[in-house]
Every structure is written in structure tokens, then in C-alpha cells.
Amino acid sequence: MITPAKRECTDCDGTMHEVKMVDKGHGNQSHPLEYAAVDAMPSFWIGQVPYAGAVAAFLCESCGLIKLYGVPHR
Ligand SMILES: [Zn+2]
Predict the structure, then answer these.
(1) How many angstroms separate the alpha carbon of residue 48 from the centre of ligand 1?
(2) Distance 13 CA to ligand 1 centre (A)
(3) Counting beta carbons within 10 angstroms of the beta carbon of residue 39, is it exposed (0 to 12), middle (13 to 18) or buried (19 or more)?
């Protein structure tokens, strides 16, 4: 799924711009948000959950609504 750079707000018809949602994580590192299946377990070898995709976020500049979309990894 490709998300367009601009969208209209479903609440107020305002203009939505893509924003980056970040997890502060540990220390000073920040990471773009990703999502995984509810029952995804950390990998035995690398200790990481198998992420299914990235999270694309759009913020309405009028009312502040943030919409999130899943963008599956290919
Ligand atoms: Zn809005």
C-alpha cells in the first residue's frame, strides 16, 4: 500500500500532512514506529519481534487528528 503525501481530514476536512511517529526507545536513539502481529514472538536468534510493517501517520493541521496506516514490509 502506498500512502499519498496529503490527505483530507475525515473529521473536519482540513489538510493532513504526513508526520513521523517515533519511539524514544533506549537512550538517545529514536526509532520509527513499526507494527507486528498480536502473537508475534521475539526471534530466538536475534531477540527481535518479526515486524510486519511500518506505521505511516498523518496529522490534521486544523484539528490535530492523527491517523495511522500500516505499510506492510515487502
Ligand atoms: Zn481535522
Answers:
(1) 36
(2) 6
(3) exposed
